[in-house]
Request: fold
Amino acid sequence: MINWNAQFTQMIRKTNQAYWGNWSLSSEITPGAVGIVDPATGLFKLISSTIPGVSEGNFLRNHVSSDWNAMTSDVSRTETDIDLKGEVTDPDTGITTKAGVQVQWKFGTEGSMVSKCALDAETVLNNPDAVLGKNIDWLVERAGQSGMGADGRIAQGFGVVTSVLYARSGLNVGSMAADNTFSLTGTASGVQKLLGEASGKGSFTSTSESKSVDKHLWPSEAGVVPTGSVPLAFTFASFDGRLLLPRWITHISAYQLVIRNTHGGTYKVDVKLTYDTPRGAKTNTTYVTGGLTATIADIPLDASNLKLELIFRGVRTDETHTLQWNSPRGQWVNGVRHIDLYGVWPGQTRAVDAEAGLE
Reply:
């Protein structure tokens, strides 16, 4: 059976690593909602829609005016002008017309998917460390009641929705068979607005498919305009014990730093990592030669102020590159950071944070 939400989440993470997808456009995904995320599927189980003492004033709402267009590689789209065979009134503009448009997507394989939306806004929990820290005892209690905590500690996977990306209108469609099609028909104005290709409230008059599809549309009914917006994707904060993991996407027991000298470099590079923990400062050292990789593992989740020094050894002088991270909890989303080393002796050297694209 196809796990549509898991596939949707992976498609989204090609451009935004911290998002979870909401394939079914479930209204339970709201800013500040407390619940459990299954890391294998991304499905959210609601425990409580609110946190005590948290109100609209704790959230920032940022308008998003762009459209959203994501699909797998074997999906293609065509658009055709058609006669609607009878006067149809656009529910947004009130204009009656016979001229319409049909947009069709062709799906090459089972599991192909398309997501096309008009984005509306993103609502973000402001200062989650302070807000959730103030409510940690209440969250610990709810986690225990949900089987996701014990002895005053919270298990990873239980937490809070910290931001929601909303769509004004749009569709998520996945093909349950190979060589399939899905079509959306309506006035040109209504369909363009629904797909985010024009401003306004979108609509459609009918849909059709040649084989089975899994589809979620907003508005969900033909001939109407959407009332409000729907959640398309979200970010989630979880906990390890009582330690907040602000952009949680998978279970992490410790952080890892991977230094790759595998890009044709010939230098020997000495590696030194220092960081702070509540138990005191720590230092790790190693080295890596050309063509090899070195890993510093077991960096604790509460580590902060990480400083990585990379010393490229020369004959007379060395060349040092330094990279720093204040808090991997907020920056190392999947728990691993890759550093790529470059340089052929005696030439110029580089050290690049692969996830951030920074030197």
